[in-house]
Amino acid sequence: MHSSESAKRQQMRFCGPSVSLTFNFAVAVGIIMANKMVMGSVGFKFPIALSLIHYAVAFVLMATLKTFSLLPVAPPSKSTPFSSIFALGAVMSLSTGLANLSLKHNSVGFYQMAKIAVTPTIVVAEFMLSQKKVSTQKAITLAVVSFGVAVATVTDLEFNFFGACVALAWIVPSAVNKIFWSSLQQSGNWTALALMWKTTPITIFFLLTLMPLLDPPGLLLFSWNFRNSCAIIISALFGFLLQWSGALALGATSALSHVVLGQFKTIVIMLSGYLIFGSDPGITSICGAVVALGGMSFYTYLGLKKDSATSGKKAPSRQNSFMAKPKVAADNDSADSEQEDNV
């Protein structure tokens, strides 16, 4: 991967929508267990510091890859303004830090209700930023999914004023973060790792500034023994994989699809607890989960149907351009069309 174009082609070849979404889902389940161990049995009560450790470990891992020339090449600096990279890093720090803070001060149900609000926020933001519209069928499907998730998690609602303020403050950065990641990867030759390498130092800087404001005192007094440190490092490794898989998913799909996947994780974890571990969320929550799963399945069907229709329309034009133009020009047109298919 000696150029950003070849690195992007390799990522698109091996990490399509199905692979990237599955990867992100599997890692997300793993980090839930890891963070539960860190926040619960280990007793690490510093959510911003935990996010900072995650990004610091990610930076060390990527620096190691870069040392051995295994990090994908980034596009030329002139192709993407530094202001865009800086804004993405800043928004990412707010999104990650406030998410962990919200999870600490809110119940799981209230946290999931806040996540539901990210969906309409993305729709509105994409329309305002790029005039991107959502079809009526998809809008209705997203509403059904959100309703199902709300019903499934309504039994765990506990209101906390500070937690509610944190959750509301998190919604906009979370939506903008997903839109930025998806837009930069799909409009340029950025791979997930290359973009992470550029934005991670900026994210670390902003997390350092947020930590004294939002974390409780006592970080240095924490018992940094071998067991606790290993648990935090394992959580950080999962955090790196989660960030990488999420970036791959946003580059291969869209911000809305990534939000739907996040809601799918919630429903699957809840149903798994009911079917495997014998938990009893109640008939109302189960019905809500079933409705949400049905809506997610139909949303996926609409996405696949659109992709199939798009590829079917573009295939004849490629053949015509190939017949009408010399081989070199035809190859260039084909490459341009492949790029358009992924935008």
TrEMBL record:
It is found in: Membrane. It comes from the Eukaryota. Keywords: Membrane, Transmembrane, Transmembrane helix. The chain crosses the membrane at residues 12-34, 46-65, 85-103, 161-181, 193-214, 226-244, 256-277, 283-304. Residues 23-299 form the Sugar phosphate transporter domain. Residues 333-343 have a biased composition (Acidic residues). This is Sugar phosphate transporter domain-containing protein. GO terms for cellular component: membrane. It comes from Panicum virgatum (Blackwell switchgrass). The keyword Transmembrane applies. It is a multi-pass membrane protein. Residues 308-343 are annotated as: Disordered.
